[in-house]
Amino acid sequence: MENRYTLVEHQRPYTYQEGDLTVTRGSAWNGPGCHLGCGVLLYTDAAGRLVKVEGDPENPFNHGRLCVRCLDAIESVYNEGRLMYPMKRAREDRGKDAWERISWDEALDLIADNLNAVKERYGAEAVIFQQGTGRDIAPWITRLCWSFGSPNYCFGMSGMSCFLPRVAGCAATTGAMWVADYSQQFADRYDNPEWECPGVVVVWGNNPVVANSDGAYGHWVIDVMKRGAKLVVVDPRRTWLANHSDAFLQIRPGTDAALAMGILNVIISEDRYDHEFVERWCYGFEELAERVAAYTPERTEEITWVPADKIVEAARMIADAGSAAFQWGVAIDMTKEAIPAGQAISAIFEITGNIDNPGGMIAPPSILPYSGGWGQDLMSPEQAAKRIGLDKYSLLNFGFQMASTDELIKAIETEEPYPIKAAWIQTTNPLANTAPDPERTLAAYRKLDFIACVDLYMTPTAMALADVLLPAATFPERDGIRCGDNVQRGEVINKVISLGECKSDQEINLLLGKRLNPEAWPWESVEEMYGEVLKDTGMTFAELREQAPAYLPFAYRKYEKGLLRPDGQPGFNTQTGRIELWSTFYNQAGLDPLPYFEEPTPGPASTPELLDEYPLVVTTGARTWSMFHSEHRQVPRMRALHPDPLIQMNPKTAEACGVTEGDWVWVENQRGRCERKVSLTPIVDERVCSTDAAWWFPEQPGEEEAGLFGMWDVNIGKLIGYEPGRAGFGSNYKTLLCKVYKVEEGE
Ligand SMILES: Nc1nc2c(c(=O)[nH]1)N[C@H]1C(S)=C(S)[C@@H](COP(=O)(O)OP(=O)(O)OC[C@H]3O[C@@H](n4cnc5c(=O)[nH]c(N)nc54)[C@H](O)[C@@H]3O)O[C@H]1N2
Ligand SMILES: Nc1nc2c(c(=O)[nH]1)N[C@H]1C(S)=C(S)[C@@H](COP(=O)(O)OP(=O)(O)OC[C@H]3O[C@@H](n4cnc5c(=O)[nH]c(N)nc54)[C@H](O)[C@@H]3O)O[C@H]1N2
Ligand code: SF4
Ligand SMILES: [Mo]
Q: Where does ligand 3 bind, in terms of residues with CB under 6 Å?
């Protein structure tokens, strides 16, 4: 088959000699630490040790730039905390440091025997397959899950509150997922003649220069600012980008839907929307206009705490910019009514015609067989229909085809609608990180007959729960590919070192897959398996390795050309063929077809009676430079940059609470409390605090009786509940009420 990719011209082969060192080009896709996949140069010495990691200047994705976690990957890779061989532990010893080293064959046979035993007795649906943020491993988890016959592929966050709300919401209302256009789909990037610089970038609930999330390298925002793009930032914290913006909208956490409706109100009432696009390609504009009419700038100010004149200014800037790119982030997913919040924000870029246009919002091409989940065809329709939560939340049919986390926890507890008896937990640390209410989560998972974990390190989750623990490989230890899945290019991860008995997640899943369902995993090697994934591209793995990154064909305004619908007709892949501002699907599903705002509960407006006790709004989990969720706590230089779990407080707020810089405090709400260290900063409003998530202390005793690495003292999940929004998506991770007071000596 003809090669449809545009390739980057490299000066040298993928691996070459530079003095005493061997340099290998590749990508940093997967752990430790990221799900983005920047281009790297890996330097190994004559003894075969990785000695240096640099950015690859030839890679158009990051143009040689790297963040600290990749520059310092060596400390993560060669960390003494790394798991080096498979281990098992008797079920009654869960929580104890009573591990026994075993061989890979024994470990994989043990897992296969246990999962098959559960399958025989209770059905394949009794086994759940859980992942974290996924990295490049997700397709191998979905294939393992679905080829085993279980519909319960899952993620530990209540309301699947990362990315999925935006993906499912966009899929249901527009038939695609929309991301900001920084020219990332072109190998020649900013020089590509088809691309235009966005007139304005709207950074909404995202901190791209720190987080580099959802396929976007954060410094692209700065690249386009240098090329003239204006900047609007919507954040409760005055971030670095907020400080460099043309308009900073300092929002009360959890009120994004109201702000978006306020902006829509201005754009519509001042007649600044794109009439031609709306009339030809959108459905339900009149109803939307009616819905947002109540959100005058003044009323929106009362709700959101953003001054009315700023709302008007931002609305005009967006509507008049020529093109507007929305760099939207996870804060939108982390409020209970995340679906209507995302819907309201999307409506801004939709009615201003920023769809599939240069410098606006684009749907990245993904053409490989595993995009959006690989292996679904391997599961029978009867099994697929058993997915937990599907009967309650039909929106689960859009996007990543996951089970509902909130229904799953109930199913484990009650054995209704059927028992859940085993878990495969790969690339995730739910107890310390994703799970709300960690006590409830631990009690539920403890009921399971069998749990296998795959990780790089020992974690609180593995210590508390695993019966078998498998050591995974970091990116320099393994070959890999990534193409599709909101990714605009094909990348290769190249193995340069080996450590202990660690295996790549891909190899682990291939070996286990062969034991569970050999027909679905016919390949003799990982390379052969990659060949299968790549077969439609006309390239073998060895060829892609020389050429990567490889760029897929891309066209703007695909909706005019019939490229977005399976029937080849112009328009969008929705029931009306248009962008649905009024959603026919939501209407059929018994949901509100239009965007709406609902006050976060508890919150200053919904539960004013709680304000005496819990006077502050707190948002959790804002990303920090040196840590990726629960990772990097054991990595010396990264930990030195951020040694303690912090709560950012305005100095005036701290004074009112009787605490000051460096104090250890309790952060408490009606559910529970955890400890934090005070960091004073004017970047937060006096009524708002912002605190880290996912803390634990690898240096503290790990056994459950001794505290699971100090996790209980600092787990912010204790303040969060399993409380998804009406559509089953979204939950209040970033908007809670709390009080802050000093930890007394001896506590
Ligand atoms: N309160 C609060 N909680 C949050 C958030 C928040 O903002 N606030 N953010 C949430 C979000 S958006 C997400 S996506 C989740 C992320 O949740 P997770 O993905 O669970 O987070 P991590 O701590 O990065 O990772 C999980 C584990 O994977 C291991 N790991 C890393 N790389 C690899 C690998 O290549 N292979 C294997 N097998 N294991 C690997 C790590 O060692 C770690 O123990 O956290 C969520 N938690
Ligand atoms: N260094 C590092 N990078 C990461 C990660 C990491 O753990 N560490 N995690 C990765 C993952 S899985 C994800 S999902 C992405 C997420 O990346 P981002 O979307 O950037 O996530 P956050 O930093 O949690 O939140 C972004 C901003 O939202 C603001 N915010 C908080 N509450 C609200 C609110 O209610 N409304 C609005 N509008 N803004 C609010 C915060 O102050 C913060 O500045 O990052 C990825 N990249
Ligand atoms: S965003 Fe940062 S940590 Fe992630 S791959 Fe790129 S350089 Fe590495
Ligand atoms: Mo995430």
A: 28, 33-34, 36-38, 66-67, 69-70, 212
